[in-house]
Amino acid sequence: MPRTSVLERTSSIRALGTVFLVMVVFFVWLTYAFFDKQFVSYEPVTITTSKAGVNLPQNADVKLRGVIVGEVRSIVPDGDGVKMTLGMKPDLLGDVPEGVTAQIVPKTLFGEKYVSLIPPSELTGQSLRAGAVIDRAVVPIEVETLLNDLYPLLNAVDPANLSYTLTAVSNALEGRGKQLGETLVTTNRYLNKTNPDVPQLVDDLIKLGEVSDGYAAAMPELGRLLRNTVVTGNTLVAKRAQLSAFFDEGTALANTLTSFTNDNGDNLIQLASDSRPVLDVLGTYAPTFPCFLAGMREIIPRLDSAFRDQKLHINATIIKQPTAYGPGEEFDVTTRDFDEASSGPPAKNGKDVNDKNAATPTCLDLNEIVGNPAKQRALSSQENPFSVPPAVYELVNVQADHNKFNSGNDPSAFNRVAPSNGLMSIVQPSMGGIDTPTERAALNALFGARAGIAPADVPDLASLLMSPILRGTAVSVE
Questions:
Q1: Hey, where are the domains in the chain?
Q2: What stretch of H or E contains 114?
Q3: C-alpha 129: how far from its chain's center?
């Protein structure tokens, strides 16, 4: 029996057929892989847009300034829009600036589309990175969409009329191509100048709508205002005689005031000039007016009680007698001293008095004792006389208490500067004609004759007590 060749065996033929088919499939896949550029490395970049348009195939070119820098790898729906994945060439990705926008434009009028990357107007120097997302993509109007929208219009137009219209347009444009071109160029120039202002125009239109809404909401009030204006106008018309008389009187008053100011202008200026010092003094002592008036309100009832029935009623209490002022205790204060003693802020109480505010007008503790009998007894009474701060002694050059000022004879409270004028008229009030030296000499002679002693030996208290008695006033000694 002859021996069969290995290649002629059924199993060998089957194996060779299988290898052939595998090689055919491999070469077909390899060809597809080369065509699909599966062996080419890309950097992914994503574009999100509302639509991709028609005739944008997969593996469509991605161009920057006419140079192919990548291709479209996939197009998939993404919610209400489209998500496209671009495969950018790694060696050209660094030449694509950051912030580019995308436009999906056709290569020809009806040809397939490609993605055109538009650089930004202001370059930052940064390049587009792998994995970046371009969210600004523009898809121009499709020619198919234009034709689809134009077809119903053309279908509704009568062909004869359309032919007549196109013929008329052709005749009108015949020989005027240059002028039409210049018109289009001029229009394009105007549109280029107007285009930057379109966003502002849109914003103005939106705001105009808001303002219009505001006016529409306020229209009832505006109508009411107009109706009230009509009523006001009718009232003015009805009262025109009174208004005319008012204006006439106003004119007469203005003329009178003009004449008065013309005649007395210098006097008014002089009055203002003369009032200035008085107002300055009043302004200086203004802080004391409230407490002075409050004190007057307290003392007037007492004065009315003391001078009731046209007589002076006195309750004299014998207290520790004040001593006389000694040599060197005379009032001698210059204007400069008073200015320095009034340069500080007013004192808030007796303890707050110092050498800078001793002469500054202030109410001191008077605000506390007015209307408060308990405070009066505690701060200003025979048992608790009003305390004079040491700064006041220094200002008026008093060197001892003399049982008058309740200083406690504190040596540090007195000044040791020798003054030159008497202080009696300042610290001791006078009653104008009562207990004068002439009256005191007459009373001392009368009392001395009655008591059998010499007039010079009569005590000073005798004339002070007898003077009210001779005037019909009762005096009681406690």
A1: 1-39, 43-138, 292-305+325-427, 437-477
A2: strand 113-118
A3: 47
Residues in the chain: 478
CA distance readout (Å), 58 to 61, 87, 96, 114:
9, 11, 21, 10
DSSP 349-368: SGGG--TTTTTS---TTHHH
CA distance 5 to 215: 105
| Per-residue confidence (pLDDT) for residue 71, from 0 to 100 | 83
Chain position carrying tokens 């008229």: 425
What's the pLDDT at 253? Answer: 92
Residue 255: the pLDDT is 92
Tokens of 297: 């309100």
Alpha helices in 380-436 (DSSP H): 390-396, 424-427
Amino acid at 418: A
What pLDDT sits at residue 427?
37
Longest Cα–Cα distance of the chain, Å, equals 202
Name, in order, each residue with C-beta under 8 angstroms of 165's C-beta and a sequence gap of 6 or more. Answer: none
Question: Comparing C-alpha atoms, which of 299, 314, 396 is closest to residue 355?
Answer: 396
Checking DSSP bridges between strand 67-78 and strand 61-64, what pairing results, if any? antiparallel
Give the separation between CA 470 and CA 393, rounded to whole angstroms. 38
> Are the CB atoms for 90 and 84 separated by under 8 Å?
no
Nearest to 346 by CA among 368, 333, 363: 363
Instruction: Average pLDDT across each block of 10 residues of the chain; the chain has 478 residues. List them in order.
Output: 60 76 81 67 81 70 85 80 82 82 75 81 80 76 64 73 81 82 86 82 87 88 89 88 90 91 88 88 82 80 78 68 69 76 75 76 69 69 64 70 58 43 36 63 78 78 68 53
Nearest in space to 418 (alpha carbons), one of 435, 390, 399, 434: 399
Q: DSSP per residue over 143-201, as a string? A: HHHHHHHHHHHHHHS-HHHHHHHHHHHHHHHTT-HHHHHHHHHHHHHHHHHHGGGHHHH
φ/ψ of 473, rounded to 5, equals: -110, 135
Phi-psi category of 310—alpha, beta or left, where left has phi over 0 and alpha has psi -120 to 50? left
- HEC string of 209-259 equals HHHHHHHHHHHHHHHHHHHHHHHHHHHHHHCHHHHHHHHHHHHHHHHHHHH
Q: Nearest Cα to 131, choosing from 79, 187, 179, 87?
A: 87
Helix (H), strand (E) at residue 260? helix 240-284
- Dist CA 78 CA 73 (whole Å): 16
Strands 101-106 and 137-138, how do they pair? parallel
pLDDT on residue 5: 62
Strand runs (DSSP E) across 14-141, as ranges?
43-49, 61-64, 67-78, 81-88, 101-106, 113-118, 133-134, 137-138
The tokens describing 296, both together, are 């007057």
